Amino acid sequence: MKIQLRTIPHSEQRYETCGDWENLPEGSLRISVSDMGNDDYAFLVAIHELVEVWLCNKRGITDEAVSAFDIEYEKNRPEGDESEPGNHPDAPYRKEHFFATNIERMIALELGLDWEKYSKAVMSL
After folding, report:
1. What pTM, to 2 d.p., does this model score?
2. Lesser CB count within 10 Å: N end or C end of the chain?
3. Residue 77 covered by a domain
4. Shortest CA distance to 31 belongs to which of 51, 11, 58?
5. Residue 7 pairs with which residues in a beta bridge?
6. What is the predicted pLDDT for the residue at 79?
């Protein structure tokens, strides 16, 4: 198993997202997290992405299906809407996204982080 985790400038994400996962052709997994200037925040996003991708892979939900949904969602996002694509009822990875968010929230609590402050940092990207 090879998992590459990296923090990158937000402008280098494949599309408008703070965390992205890709199953690479050689069989490794790459998780890219937007740099928010806070290692705890990056860790939370990375954990979310790792849980989400693992569940998606186990359930046959592809990177292509998730990315296509996310890209289309962002194209059609109404102004002022700050919801996450994975929360949408039609998201092919909705169940996996919700589970990953629950894990993310538990870790934030354990780290003593303010969820609202964290969420605002993510949305400000």
Report:
1. 0.93
2. N
3. no
4. 51
5. 33
6. 87
Distance CA 80, CA 7 (A): 27
Whose tokens are 């937007």? That residue is: 34
Q: Which two three-digit tokens encode residue 111?
A: 């780290």
Question: Is residue 72 in some structural domain?
Answer: no
B/e letters for 58-69, b = 16+ CB within 10 Å, e = fewer, are: eeebebeebbeb
Vertex 13 angle, CA 60 and 122, to 5°: 95
Question: What mean pLDDT comes out for the span 52-78?
Answer: 95
Asked if residue 31 is part of any domain, the answer here is: yes
Residue-range definition of the domain harbouring residue 32: 3-63+84-123
Between the CA of residue 99 and those of 31, 64, 85, 86, what are the distances in Å?
18, 20, 14, 11
Q: Which residue has the tokens 């280098």?
A: 12
Cβ-Cβ contacts under 8 Å for 45 (sequence gap 6 or more): 18, 19, 33, 34, 104, 122
Report pLDDT digits (tens) over 40-61: 999 999 999 999 999 999 999 9
Q: Residues 45, 8, 2, CA angle at the centre, nearest 5°?
A: 70
